Every structure is written in structure tokens, then in C-alpha cells.
């Protein structure tokens, strides 16, 4: 959702200086650039990526102008590299005028092919990102360089951002922010250098120079999109003195209109009485009932229709915008006398919230915090009910607003660190003729595990629900036959705090038992299901971010046939842990066993007390994750007694 911020700009005429973009150009005689051996082995590498954002006060008139110039030079070394760079998309969002677009290709033998501007096409609404100018690079071949330079005049906007890190390496990156006599600020995120002051002719500005930017890659347990190096900026009219605090205050005032009603809507007051039978119920119970009612009866519609924010329209039509639905919750919570705080934040996988630099991109997610319950309502998550914060928000900063429109910034964390856990108890036996294995299993899922399982069984299509049975009865056992499958507490309305989602099952499998002469190999590790593996050949780029803290406790009882003894038990003993500086365990995988008569009892404890780990802790974290996968490969040998 885009926050609408009313800022009165007092504009005045001023002497106009020569604009930077008018003087800037590429080299008249292009030549191929020198690369190191490593750089030459990349599929492609950006030799230069240069961005210029220039604000201009016109000599006549009072409308600020904004120009954006982009200049890139990329070397392509193979088909993958050519495919990455040979089609150029230029967004036309807020574009008033295309000042110039040009491109050229330089082949290894020095041949230069210029862009034929007649080949520039306009494409409407590309994947809902708006209109684009698009053109293909002509003459690109292996080891050639592709150069693109264009300048756009855009609608004045006080805010902007540019993602700098890409999927390919960048040898040199320049970002120039020219604000002249206008009050402007710019900030670089996750960059090894900072902006420095510079003059461009007679215009004041700031520049950022970065070298050897590594590609951003997709990695498990990471937030690669929001971890990319990027720049955010602000620029206001001359004579204005707009602070971040003023901007945040303006957002709070505008967005929270109608979220603290002085009088509850009469229809909603009736609904509240029907929902909440016990006025003395605690805030958790009341808020849970309200959350379940709204998500069962109302629909969030993604469009800009103003009626979707009008409480009368919403109550009548049961449809609301993402802000309008907050008003429904607010009226219900007020009627139920439940204390609440609206929260404004962003998806941590999309954007890391910075309270010290206002950026409208941060204003994407709206929550409601219930302080006496220490839990959150997530209005746009129909799969959730009042709970700990969902994984896509956990760890981000948010604006918490009270009923006096006072606001504070807090990191959004989980109160109950043992909220999400899985408990499994298995009893394993063998058919008399040793033809197959029988596994009886009782499972308890808590927290986010329970929430997700309930949502899947209540909201997914029938075929997907059938496939979900495989996950709940032992994933990765291909030939299993499900003999019993019972689920308890699958309803999404659960007023008991953190009530477990229960699964009782029984399966048989022949593939877990392999004949070896007169002995048998039992692949006991596979009974815990398919496990994540964390292996990558390249250097880790991102710090570690798990979805949430969680814990697993398993007890596996294997009934050994009376005429057999077992060997290879050493594969069942695994211990991997990651410690903090004080020696406390941050995460751990530990498996062990004991034997009592013909019963082999295997215990497994795996936990992750934190959801964020520094990149320096990657190796230790990886060992814990992979320990579960190692156990999955464990096997024991059952041999006849002599």
C-alpha cells in the first residue's frame, strides 16, 4: 500500500544551473576493457553501472523537475551472459519525457553496432509492473561489450530508491545524487562505502563509488531480496525543512484515521455481543474470536476504491481494503474493550525497515498488536489467527501506534521462544517373516507448525490435502502403505493457547528393510522423513534467517526381533551444536540411543533458539542443519543370533 503524504512545498524561482545529464555522454570511440582472469571467466560482468538522479529548480515556473540517467557497460562471455543483458527493459512509470535512449555493442574485433531506435517497442502492463520501453541488443556475441545509456524526465517525487546489487558481478558502480540548492538526503544500505559530498558544476550533490560488488544469489535460510545493496533518497522543495519525525508523524496521522473510533458502529456492536458471550473473557480469547470472525466473514480487496475504507460500506458489503479491514477490527476490539495497537511495517523478505530514514516502501504491512496477550492479528493472512508474529514479519522493525496517535519503533520479536515445536513418538516393529516394517507414530505440532497445518487442511484444494497426508505420515518413504491416519484439533478456531495439532498414524514399508544374506539392513534414519541439507559450493553471501525459533523432540522405539541382534549403532550417535560467546547453545542436533532387552530407544533433540545468525556463524549453523540429514542416512544391521 502506498502511503499518501501531504507535504506543502514552497517553491520559488531560482537561477538555473546547467544540468549534469546534458553534458554527460559515453566515450566517442569505445574500446574493450581489460579484465582479470577471474572476471573473464564469469558468464557476464558489469564493467560499469552508473546512476544519476538529478533534481532541478526551473528558471521559470514553480514545478520541480527530476531527471534520471542510467549508463551501463557489460561484458558477456557466453550464452547465459548474453541472455542476461541482450534485452533492455525501461520502466515508464512516472516518466514525462524520454530525453534520450541509445545503445551499442562492441565485438572482440572492434566492430560497433548501434541501436536502431525504430526497434524500440512499448509494452503495456508487463506482469502488472506497468508500461515499459523494450529493445533487443543487436550484434551481441561471445566476449563482446553491451553499452546502454538513457535519460528520463520523471514526475517530481520526494522519495526514491534504486537496487544496486544484481545477479551478476559489478566491477564499478557509481551513484550520483544531485539536489542542487534543494534539501536532499541519500543513504546507502549494505554498501562498503558511504556517500561523499561533491559538486556538479555549481550544483551540490553526493556520490557513492563501489567496486567489485558480488552477485546476490538465492540461498536457503536467507532474505536475499531485502539484503541487496540499495540506495534510498529524499528531496524536497526549496525552503522546506522536512524531518523524518515529521514524515513518520504524517503517516501515522493519515493511515490510522478511523482506527480508534470514539463510537462503535451500531451493527458492529451487535456483532461483538454475538461473538463474545463472556464479557469477562481474557483479551486473548476475545481477540481470537474477533480475528476468526473477521476472516470467516470479510474479504480484503486489492484496489483503490475509496468505499473499501468506509466503515458503513464495509459493514454492509463485507469487503474492505487492507486499511479498511483494520477499521473493522478496531470497532470490534473497542466494543470488546480489548486494548490494541495498530502496527505498520514491511515484509522482512522484501524490505528491512529503517526507522532513521523515511521510505514509503516500508509501509506495506498492517498488523494489530494485543499487548495483554503479547500476540498479533495479521489481517491479510487468512491462514493465521491471533498468534506470535508470522515468519515474513519476524525480526523487522515496526511503528506501534497507541490511541493517542503517539508512536514508537520496536523490533518485532517473538515473546514465547518455545512457541513452535514438534514432538514425535514412534513404535517400530517387524513383520514375522521380515517382509516389511510397521511404524506407529503419534505427532504433536505446536505454534506456527500447528497454524500452518490447520490452514492447509482447511483452505487447500482436495487434491493438495490428499498429498499433504504424505507429509504427515512420513515423507520420503516411497512405498509406504498408510494403515491408519487420524487428525485431531484441525479446526482453525482454537481458544486454548497453543493447542497442539495431533496426528496419529500407522504405516508399513518394505523399502526400509533390505535383505543382506541372512541379515537385514534397517534404514532407521528414514523414519524421521526428508530433511533439509545445506550445501553450497560458492561462498555464503547472506546472513542466516530462519522462519522462526523451533524445536524437535523425537523418541523412536525399535522392537528388535527376538532371534536377532543389532550392529552399526554408532551411526545413531550425532552431536552438533553452535555456541555463543558465553558457551550457551544457540542451536543443536543431538541423537543417541539406549538398549533395554530387545528394545532400542533412539532419542533426538534438535532446536534453534534464535532465528537470526551472523554470516560468520554459517559453518556451525550448517553443521547442525546437516546433522539431521546425516541421521536420515543412518542404518543398523540386524543379524541372526548364533
Report on this model:
The protein is α+β, with helices and mostly antiparallel strands and 642 residues long. The chain folds into three domains: 221 residues, Immunoglobulin-like (Sandwich), CATH 2.60.40.3140; 163 residues, C8orf32 fold (Roll), CATH 3.10.620; 220 residues, no CATH class. An eight-stranded mixed beta sheet has the order 5-4-8-2-1-10-13-12, with helices on one face. An eight-stranded mixed beta sheet has the order 24-25-23-22-29-33-32-31. Strand 22 and strand 23 form a beta hairpin. The N terminus is likely disordered.
The best one-word shape is: globular
Mean pLDDT: 94
Query: How many domains make up the coordinates?
Result: 3
What is the number of strand segments? 35
Strand content: 35-45%
Oligomer: single chain
Rg over CA atoms, rounded to whole Å, is 30 Å
Question: Briefly, what CATH class of the largest domain?
Answer: Mainly Beta
Q: What distance lies between the first and last C-alpha atoms, to the nearest angstrom?
A: 74 Å
Helical coverage, percent range: 10-25%
Task: Give the helix/strand class.
Answer: alpha+beta
User: What strand line-up does the widest sheet have?
Assistant: 5-4-8-2-1-10-13-12
Q: Briefly note the CATH topology name of the largest domain.
A: Immunoglobulin-like
- Counted by DSSP, the helix tally is 12
CATH architectural type of the largest domain: Sandwich
Sheet with most strands:
8 strands, mixed
- Which parts are unreliable, with pLDDT below 50 for 5 consecutive residues or more? 1-16
Amino acid at each position: 500500500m502506498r502511503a499518501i503524504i501531504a507535504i506543502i512545498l514552497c517553491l520559488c524561482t531560482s537561477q538555473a544551473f546547467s544540468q549534469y545529464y546534458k553534458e554527460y555522454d559515453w566515450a566517442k570511440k569505445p574500446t574493450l576493457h581489460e579484465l582479470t582472469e577471474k572476471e573473464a571467466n564469469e558468464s557476464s560482468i558489469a564493467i560499469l553501472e552508473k546512476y544519476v538522479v538529478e533534481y532541478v529548480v526551473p528558471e521559470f515556473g514553480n514545478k520541480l523537475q527530476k531527471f534520471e540517467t542510467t549508463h551501463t557497460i557489460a561484458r558477456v562471455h557466453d550464452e547465459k551472459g548474453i541472455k542476461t543483458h541482450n534485452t533492455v527493459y525501461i520502466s515508464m512509470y512516472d516518466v514525462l519525457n524520454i530525453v534520450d535512449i541509445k545503445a551499442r555493442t562492441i565485438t572482440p574485433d572492434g566492430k560497433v553496432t548501434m541501436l536502431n531506435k525504430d526497434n524500440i517497442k512499448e509494452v503495456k502492463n508487463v506482469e502488472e509492473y506497468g508500461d515499459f520501453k523494450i529493445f533487443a541488443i543487436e550484434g551481441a556475441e561471445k566476449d563482446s561489450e553491451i553499452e546502454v545509456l538513457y535519460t528520463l524526465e520523471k514526475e517530481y517525487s520526494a522519495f526514491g530508491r534504486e537496487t544496486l546489487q544484481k545477479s551478476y558481478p559489478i566491477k564499478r558502480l557509481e551513484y550520483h545524487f544531485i539536489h542542487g540548492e534543494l534539501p536532499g538526503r541519500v543513504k546507502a544500505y549494505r554498501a562498503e562505502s558511504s556517500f561523499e559530498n561533491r559538486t556538479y558544476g555549481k550544483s551540490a550533490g553526493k556520490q557513492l563509488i563501489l567496486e567489485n560488488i558480488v552477485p546476490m544469489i538465492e540461498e536457503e535460510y536467507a532474505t536475499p531480496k531485502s539484503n541487496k545493496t540499495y540506495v534510498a533518497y529524499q528531496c524536497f522543495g526549496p525552503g522546506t525543512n522536512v524531518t523524518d519525525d515529521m514524515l513518520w508523524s504524517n503517516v501515522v496521522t493519515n493511515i490510522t484515521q478511523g482506527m480508534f473510533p470514539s463510537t462503535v458502529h451500531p451493527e458492529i456492536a451487535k456483532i461483538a455481543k454475538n461473538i463474545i458471550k463472556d464479557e469477562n473473557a481474557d483479551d486473548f480469547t476475545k481477540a481470537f474470536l474477533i480475528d476468526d470472525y473477521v476472516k470467516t466473514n470479510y474479504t480484503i480487496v486489492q484496489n483503490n476504491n475509496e468505499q473499501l475504507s468506509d466503515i458503513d460500506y464495509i459493514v454492509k458489503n463485507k469487503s474492505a481494503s487492507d486499511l479498511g479491514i483494520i477499521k473493522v477490527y478496531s470497532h470490534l476490539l473497542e466494543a470488546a474493550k480489548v486494548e490494541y495497537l495498530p502496527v505498520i511495517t514491511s515484509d522482512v523478505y522484501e524490505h528491512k525497515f529503517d526507522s532513521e530514514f523515511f521510505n514509503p516502501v516500508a509501509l506495506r504491512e498492517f498488523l494489530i498488536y494485543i499487548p495483554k496477550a503479547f500476540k498479533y492479528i495479521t489481517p491479510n493472512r487468512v491462514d493465521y489467527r491471533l498468534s506470535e508474529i508470522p515468519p515474513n514479519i519476524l525480526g523487522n522493525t515496526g511503528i506501534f501506534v497507541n490511541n493517542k496517535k503517539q508512536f514508537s519503533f520496536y523490533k518485532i520479536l517473538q515473546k514465547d521462544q518455545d512457541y513452535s515445536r514438534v514432538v514425535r513418538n514412534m513404535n517400530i516393529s517387524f513383520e514375522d517373516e521380515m517382509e516389511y516394517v510397521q511404524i506407529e507414530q503419534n505427532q504433536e505440532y505446536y505454534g506456527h507448525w500447528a497454524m500452518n497445518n490447520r490452514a492447509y487442511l482447511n483452505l487447500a484444494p482436495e487434491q493438495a490435502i490428499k498429498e499433504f497426508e504424505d507429509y504427515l505420515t512420513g515423507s520420503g518413504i516411497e512405498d509406504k502403505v498408510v494403515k491408519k491416519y487420524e487428525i485431531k484439533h484441525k479446526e482453525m478456531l482454537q481458544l486454548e493457547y497453543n493447542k497442539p495439532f495431533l496426528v496419529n498414524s500407522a504405516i508399513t514399508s518394505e523399502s526400509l528393510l533390505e535383505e543382506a544374506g541372512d541379515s537385514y539392513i534397517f534404514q532407521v534414519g528414514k523414519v524421521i522423513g526428508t530433511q533439509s541439507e545445506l550445501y553450497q559450493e560458492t561462498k555464503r553471501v547472506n546472513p542466516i534467517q530462519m522462519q522462526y525459533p523451533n524445536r524437535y523432540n523425537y523418541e523412536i522405539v525399535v522392537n528388535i526381533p527376538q532371534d536377532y541382534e543389532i550392529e552399526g549403532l554408532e551411526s545413531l550417535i550425532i552431536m552438533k551444536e553452535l555456541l555463543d560467546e558465553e558457551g550457551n547453545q544457540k542451536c543443536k542436533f543431538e541423537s543417541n540411543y539406549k538398549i533395554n532387552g530387545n528394545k532400542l530407544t533412539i532419542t533426538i533433540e534438535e532446536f534453534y533458539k534464535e532465528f537470526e545468525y551472523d554470516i560468520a556463524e554459517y559453518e556451525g549453523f550448517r553443521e547442525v542443519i546437516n546433522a539431521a540429514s546425516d541421521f536420515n542416512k543412518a542404518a543398523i544391521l540386524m543379524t541372526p543370533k548364533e
